[in-house]
């Protein structure tokens, strides 16, 4: 059994001092590691009806596409502002400095569809919370949210769970 946590590379002080960047490219580049991550992310939802995975740009696309294939469902990209070609709906969220916006196509979701949120990592939960609000606004029934890495000290998982969304994570790391 591959130790998935040991396949995540930590880069101190990236992109700025004090941040421990948890780099999953080393995990994705390992055939057994990647396979195992996708299997574990999909596992809790294998027996549930899921209409689509919504993956958050950009690492959520790599993982979300593979999870969707495994679950036999569709894939919806949640993108940064201005990237999607058709009519969109957006949701603003706060960053450390300023605000950002994520968007989906306005016709991506039919009311009541069961959607699973996928991203690589949850830190403060700001991005995932914006995804929850955006999907709720689109009429989605959010089945849950799944991440490879959680940084529990930043409280993001609790924030998402406070919206009544079940979260699954594969591993925790201390610190920021
Ligand atoms: P947040 O909105 O604070 O939960 O941040 C989550 C997003 O930022 C995810 O899409 C991550 O890819 C990225 N991110 C935040 N902190 C880190 C970190 N320490 N290492 C790697 N990625 C991070």
Characterise this structure.
Helix content is 27%, strand content 34%. It has helices spanning 25-28, 31-42, 59-71, 126-137, 156-161, and strands at 9-12, 20-23, 52-56, 74-80, 88-94, 99-105, 114-122, 141-150, 167-172. It has a single domain (48-172), classed as Rossmann fold (3-Layer(aba) Sandwich), CATH 3.40.50. The strands form 2 sheets. Strands 5-6-4-3-7-8-9 form a 7-stranded mixed β-sheet, sandwiched between helices. A two-stranded antiparallel ribbon has the order 1-2. The relative contact order is 0.17. Helix 2 crosses helix 3. It has 5 helices and 9 strands. With 176 residues, the chain is of the alpha/beta class. The structure holds adenosine monophosphate. The site of adenosine monophosphate (AMP) has 18 residues, from strand 2, strand 7 and helix 4. Adenosine monophosphate binds at residues 19-22, 56, 59, 119-128, 156, 176.
Topology:
Elements: E1 9-12, E2 20-23, H1 25-28, H2 31-42, E3 52-56, H3 59-71, E4 74-80, E5 88-94, E6 99-105, E7 114-122, H4 126-137, E8 141-150, H5 156-161, E9 167-172
Parallel strand pairs: 3-4, 3-7, 7-8, 8-9
Antiparallel strand pairs: 1-2, 4-6, 5-6
Helix pairs in contact: 2-3
Overview in brief:
With 176 residues, the protein is α/β, with parallel strands linked by helices. The chain has helices at 25-28, 31-42, 59-71, 126-137, 156-161, and strands at residues 9-12, 20-23, 52-56, 74-80, 88-94, 99-105, 114-122, 141-150, 167-172. The mean pLDDT is 97.
